[in-house]
Design goal:
This protein is mainly beta and about 100 residues long. The chain has a single domain, classed as Jelly Rolls. It has no helices and nine strands. It has a five-stranded antiparallel beta sheet with strand order 1-2-9-4-7, with no helix packed on it. Strand 5 and strand 6 form a beta hairpin. The protein is globular.
Length: about 100
């Protein structure tokens, strides 16, 4: 799994840290099954472009299916993502 980061266009640089995208095409794209994202102080919007992905909060064994866009605001606990073949996520991280 490779995460591609992009530089925002000049007009959006004051507001956007970076757009990013990751996709899982086959088993070799999954270096680890569950990814832990620690609390951040930035707003992030994610869009599901492929199959739904699985996310958990508090308990990394109870996952919910995400099949739409998600606005993730400031949070104080880690989030957990279970990577699966067919996941394709595009996100925008704001400043």
């Amino acid at each position: 799994m490779v995460i591609h980061y992009q530089k925002p266009i000049f007009e959006l640089e004051p507001y956007i840290n970076h757009p990013w995208e990751k996709s899982v095409i086959d088993q070799s794209d999954i270096p680890y099954e569950i990814e832990t994202i620690f609390p951040e102080d930035q707003l992030n919007i994610t869009f599901t472009l492929g199959l739904p992905y699985l996310r958990a909060q508090k308990n990394p064994s109870v996952f919910e299916k995400i099949d739409t866009h998600v606005i993730e605001a400031l949070h104080t606990i880690p989030s957990y993502y279970k990577h699966q073949i067919g996941n394709h996520i595009f996100g925008i991280k704001f400043k």
